[in-house]
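Illustration: Thiamine pyrimidine synthase.
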Amino acid sequence: MTTDNFVRQAGISRRYFLQVTGAGLVTATALGVTGLKARAEAYGKFTWISPRGTLEVLDDYPYWAAKKAGYFDGLDTDMQPGPSDGTATVKFVDVGQADMGFPSPGVFSFAIQNGMKLKSVFHMGARDTFSIAFRKGEGSNDLKKLEGKTILLGSAAWQSITDPLLAAQGVDIKKVKYVEAGWPTWGTALAGGQGDAALSWEGLRAEWIAKGLDFEYWLGVKNSKLPANTFVVRSADLEDPDKKAFLEKYLRGWAMGLEFGYQNPRAAVEAVFEQFPTLAKNLGPELGTTSILQQINVFRGDMDKRGGWGSHDMASWQGFFDEIHKIGQITNPVKAEDVCTNDLIPAANTFDKAKVKADADGVKLSEGFAALDVEKIKAHLFDSAVK
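Result:
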């Protein structure tokens, strides 16, 4: 992959975004979901769409753990990978080809900028999951040193993630270049000597190690106050009492899956591995558990200061919206309370935590997982941070 394929100074234009939108909608037929008229009448099968173009990752462990444990209680649910275009997760929800997306705050901001009537209802990423990967010995905790350098991305749309992350650290983003090195090859491109750094995130760090990609990282989870990925739905769905009640029940399943994973991370990994045997073979118990522990740290955040799983920290979100307005990623100011809501959080967290803990504790682990020392893994979660 060379910089001829995609090099762009900071800033993705509206024209480019709309071109990507057109491409994404062509791909939408692959989902096989019901038409817009049926969606307007009722959810039917409720479709969640990934931002990554794949489901064979550990990131969605709460869903698979909850599904295995029966926490969705008869709801007709579906998970779809969607296209690898980073903006597909909001576009499909906007036009009714999916019911819930999982965008980064940056991609969510593009949805807002382009008039999509979406609202964040369940904030998964209480801490900033995103990081900057460097080849060993080339990293720095001063991201200003990236000025004049090239950052590799898996999708051009990820620039909306990286720009505010860098700007919040004092980087002049006009002096940074980006290369779209493709999904899932952008990490391999960095290891191969292309670019100077690459966007990464918690959980993926462990998956990259399994692929022989051993980097050092500036960690957002340690250094950034920005929010991370969140669940979004159409704003109109929140005005429909039946759909709102469905969403509360659906999100309760996710919240129970998050609690299950917190109580027994190894059992949650096994639930994902049962769903995706190839992922299990590629990662194995130790790296799988490392990945999920990285993500649990992001998803849980400081629970003593939160209103439960999925609760938005409006101050963090407001800081993000103020930052992206300052750098021109959005043209008009955004008030966090207008596009994020905690209205569904109390109902989503109304479940028997003791029962979920008992369920999690009662799982009989396979030999490989049972042999793992979880506390030892936790003690080394951030060993790859830039020193």
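Reading the tokens back as a structure: Residues 1-42 have pLDDT under 50 and may be disordered.
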